[in-house]
TrEMBL record, chains A, B:
The protein's name in its UniProt record: Beta sliding clamp
Entry keyword set: Cytoplasm, DNA replication, DNA-binding, DNA-directed DNA polymerase, Nucleotidyltransferase, Transferase
TM segment ranges: none
Location of the DNA polymerase III beta sliding clamp central domain: 130-245
Keyword Calcium (UniProt): no
NCBIfam families listed in its UniProt record: dnan
Pfam families: DNA_pol3_beta, DNA_pol3_beta_2, DNA_pol3_beta_3
Species, as recorded: Heliophilum fasciatum
InterPro entries the record matches: DNA_clamp_sf (IPR046938), DNA_polIII_beta (IPR001001), DNA_polIII_beta_C (IPR022635), DNA_polIII_beta_cen (IPR022637), DNA_polIII_beta_N (IPR022634)
Subunit-level organization: Forms a ring-shaped head-to-tail homodimer around DNA.
Molecular function in Gene Ontology: 3'-5' exonuclease activity; DNA binding; DNA-directed DNA polymerase activity
Subcellular location: Cytoplasm
A GO biological-process term: DNA strand elongation involved in DNA replication
Amino acid sequence: MEFTCSRPELLEGVNAVIRAVSSKPQIPVLSGIYMETNDHVLRLVATDMEIGIEYKIPVQTNQSGATVVNARVFNEMVRRLPDSPVMFSTAGDHAALKVRYHGSEVTLNTMNPQEFPLLPTILDGDRVTLKASNFKEMTRLVSFAASTDEARPWFTGVLWDFHPDGLRWVATDTHRLAMLVGEVVHQQIAEPRQLILHGKTLSDVAKLLDDDDQELHMIMTSSQVLLEADRLRVILRIIDGQYPKYQQVIPREWKTRITISVKALSEAVDRASLASIGKEGSNIVKLSMDKDSLQIRSNSPEVGHIYEEVWIDMQGEPIPIAFNYRYLQEALRVIGGDQVYLDLSGTLVPGVLRPLQDERYLYLIVPVRTV
Amino acid sequence: MEFTCSRPELLEGVNAVIRAVSSKPQIPVLSGIYMETNDHVLRLVATDMEIGIEYKIPVQTNQSGATVVNARVFNEMVRRLPDSPVMFSTAGDHAALKVRYHGSEVTLNTMNPQEFPLLPTILDGDRVTLKASNFKEMTRLVSFAASTDEARPWFTGVLWDFHPDGLRWVATDTHRLAMLVGEVVHQQIAEPRQLILHGKTLSDVAKLLDDDDQELHMIMTSSQVLLEADRLRVILRIIDGQYPKYQQVIPREWKTRITISVKALSEAVDRASLASIGKEGSNIVKLSMDKDSLQIRSNSPEVGHIYEEVWIDMQGEPIPIAFNYRYLQEALRVIGGDQVYLDLSGTLVPGVLRPLQDERYLYLIVPVRTV
């Protein structure tokens, strides 16, 4: 193998695939990045068997070949390379990788490329095309609501529900639920289906995409999703299991609708959270309201107590309710626009946040029972 | 106590004094910030008994008084305050602190201000005046060379050596030593003296100073240094003990002088360090040289080996030498200017870095014996 490459392009590729390298690899070769040159293309691959990422870089190749280098070491080295062209070469599949620039030379240990599990080539399956910007938006608005508790894998996932009205993205950790009806450029699905993908992994993929109108082509088998965009190919494992019937928990109507500034509510909740954190903190903020003001109260023996007031418009009767402040805070951080509805139906019925300018999104919070 | 204040000014004061709050306070009241209002001035004080910081803010006071609030909680609260004026009040020394803005109100628990150890008023002692910019420069170039091992307190300190040729700042951890001859605006010292101040604490103080020509007035007793600048007063404890005779380790002459680019050497050492870190890493880089090139070599069974070449000018004969790469790296990061001398006198004699444009500074590294 022999090729010449510049630091910025190589770094872009390493930054992309390194997200798939596990910090605790199941087999030693998975601590590495697979590199292969052929026909003026360098292909970088990394996988932790949950996600696999492949990235192609145009390079000047003099000789085809493959090798595997330790991902952490290679990443650190690429960052420190000079800006001048750098030559990479191996004298065979089992030889060390030589990296040459100026008069200097790095010799890196390698692993056997034949042991590396490359990404499968998927040809048959359902197909869907999304815009990269929509994929990023869906991830941002939904993934954070998934659980991080690996004991119940469905809840660590984001549901993709192919529905007649569009592609629904849903995530819940049973305390709150986010749902966005996403836009699809094109789809070709044999029959209506649901699939669950790991929320954290989707967020990692979103970070690899440019925020533009680039199209993402996806092929979905029964166990995997292959995503392709420009230089990037990503394989995601589909989480086994049946997602809970999420539609049943979304209230169909509201008794009280509060219209409130996202910024004012967010700042008030941030301040109120101060007296609900800490050793003796309950994480609870209590909401009460009248015609034109929402009152938020919190207290802890340790810190003191906090009373916040925010101007609102209210339709319906006041419904006192209490929430874990984190579930409010996290949603308010991602919801855009000036104003949001908070729809309530009872003290023990989930409240629903809906952005005024975006009917595609809702965020539901299960209330906390207080004395 | 009652005063009105805006968030940005209060935040500046809290940011300043919070550096003196210990994460493990010896007595409960030291987890707090002391606040006192008098004559349109709010005085904030915090101390961990090693360092004490006082910061004065002009405010609109309606009623004098004092209180102590938990530093962590108060800091978090101030950050989240709205930009509109905020009113603070207590109904007495032992009452809660009320914070009011818009229609909202925070009630914070307080501690007894009479229990708070305020900074002593120092009037008698040696005096010295430095420019803030020089204080910051001295700290940046010297403090990092101090040890972090509290078992030998002198080596965690920076020596201030009042010498006929100026104020020498010296720090060493016994593996390397940094020395800068600092500029003094004015001094009034009864007799030549040395004092040791904690290196990490000096760096904390430097962060509080603006990078300008502001003058710092210091009064030094036998046990403490009081530093005053504008709104800020800082008390530092002098570390007990006799500093080692540092002059004896600085080579008076060199046998070989290498002139080298700071940037090129720094980048080459950064890359070479890759093959000296890790589980089996020695932290060692080996230097050899000929008339116009310096060669740097490192290797580890885990990573591989690295060979770097940097252009140099050399006077004298080649002297192969090995250093812990960290001691080179840390100095090269703070040394300014284009070029630096590396002065060598033998394979087992300390090497000395001296910036070409700054005769006031030197940095010495003890070499590593290799087979």
